[in-house]
Specification:
441 residues; mainly alpha; globular
């Protein structure tokens, strides 16, 4: 065994702004790379970035579309959720690999390789997408507080802002504390829907058929399937995930970077796998509780969905749904603010205090809540705006990840590139359809 293989800690370092307390993660990662840590423990130092990214895949927008799909068409569209999740895994894996291989994030690489006018255009659209997504997530968290505590939506919005500020403050204490809090909020969501599944008892046979046998029964089902697959990938977390792996553990040699990515893939599979299971559980619960009882409008209003769960399943099911929505909204809103920081720093080499950014981006949400604008409508419009940003993040990601001069030993294989191009074409095409439908409608 070579010296570098025996002592990867000499080739491993934290980000330049790493805190002293993060040295423990470096030591644990070095031990795992040497093979000194066995079993699942060896993966622990590398877990975290994908969990932060995965929050965007179980945000309030997913709650709405899954409730709508399950209540209207039962388990029929579970396959669309499964396919969308597999696509998300590929995209986030490429984003994570980009950060590990290059030591730079997607926005920084765009700035370095594209003309200045293109960079400015990409920055503007990325900011708009991040703010639109953040708006929906903020409103979703406020709606969760409203369901759980019965407070007015505007007051709930102020509480959401305070909670988001608290989570973002953890960034100053190092990446591990922030990752831990986000993981706890994800665990709350998982626990909430695990309880709901036990209470709703969706049919195993129906779930299996819906997952493995694609089916479309009419135009409305087709449109929902398009929405599920087309709006799954979140452009702001493509930028963010590359930054999280870029600034977490830095491999100083190609071989160490390759080993880091192998461990990072476990993070991606676990985190996105959990997100996929949660989304499928949402849809299956809606199918069992609403569709099987002839209730087809549960996706129109998340508060209506909460009340319906409570009235049907009892055992405080509506409250549990509200807690999950609250955890989803607060965590995903914080992640959206983090993504905004990455976008500005990467494209423009400019930073503003994260709390100032949080204050600015929450103003539209507070206006929506103050004037009692329909939260469900806000969620739909945010998904349309998000659709515009998909190509501008996905296409550069695929371009850069196939360049050997940038990626080195982690360059995409021809098969990976071919699959990535196909997935990008499908997602971009479906989002064009969604935009067209939104304009026509």
């Amino acid at each position: 065994m070579s010296t570098s293989a025996r002592t990867p800690h000499r080739e491993l370092s934290p980000a330049e702004d790493g805190l002293p307390g993060e040295a423990r993660i470096i030591d644990a990662a070095a031990s795992a790379l040497r093979g000194d840590r066995r079993g699942f423990r060896r993966y622990l130092p590398f877990l975290g970035p994908a969990f932060i990214a995965a929050v965007a895949y179980i945000d309030p927008g997913n709650f709405a579309v899954n409730m709508a799909a399950g209540s209207e068409f039962g388990d029929q569209l579970l396959w669309a959720v499964a396919v969308a999740n597999l696509m998300a895994m590929l995209v986030q894996a490429l984003s994570a690999k980009l950060g590990v291989a290059t030591g730079r994030n997607l926005a920084e690489l765009c700035r370095e390789h594209f003309p200045r006018p293109v960079v400015v255009m990409l920055w503007i659209q990325a900011e708009i997408v991040a703010m639109a997504t953040d708006l929906a997530e903020f409103v979703g968290a406020a709606l969760g507080i409203n369901i759980v505590f019965g407070l007015p939506l505007f007051v709930s919005g102020l509480i959401t802002a305070a909670a988001a500020f608290g989570i973002l403050a953890l960034q100053s204490a190092g990446f591990r504390r922030l990752e831990t809090v986000i993981a706890v909020l994800v665990a709350v969501i998982v626990a909430a829907f695990a309880i709901q599944v036990l209470l709703a008892r969706p049919g195993v046979g129906q779930v299996a058929r819906g997952t493995f046998i694609p089916g479309i029964s009419g135009t409305s089902a087709l449109l929902l399937a398009v929405g599920i697959v087309g709006a799954t990938v979140m452009p702001h977390v493509i930028y963010l995930h590359s930054a999280l792996t870029q600034s977490r553990l830095v491999g100083r040699t190609p071989e160490v970077r390759r080993r880091i990515f192998r461990f990072t893939m476990v993070d991606v599979v676990i985190a996105l796998g959990i997100a996929g299971i949660v989304n499928m559980a949402m849809l299956a619960i809606a199918a069992a509780v609403f569709h099987d009882h002839g209730i087809t409008n549960a996706g129109e209003n998340l508060k209506t969905a909460s009340n319906g769960l409570g009235n049907t399943l009892h055992y405080h099911s509506g409250l549990i749904f509200g807690i999950a929505l609250l955890a989803s909204g607060i965590s995903s809103s914080s992640v959206g603010t983090m993504a905004g920081q990455v976008v500005m720093q990467g494209f423009l080499r400019r930073r503003i205090p994260v709390f100032l950014r949080r204050a600015i981006t929450m103003i539209p949400a507070l206006i929506v809540l103050a004037f009692a604008i329909n939260p469900a409508r806000v969620l739909v419009l945010s998904q349309v705006v998000l659709s515009f940003g998909i190509p501008f993040a996905l296409i550069p990601l695929v371009m850069f990840s196939r360049r050997r001069a940038l990626m080195g030993i982690l360059t995409n294989s021809r098969l990976t590139t071919a699959v990535a191009v196909l997935v990008t074409a499908i997602i971009v095409g479906l989002n064009v359809v969604l935009i067209a439908l939104a304009v026509v409608g």
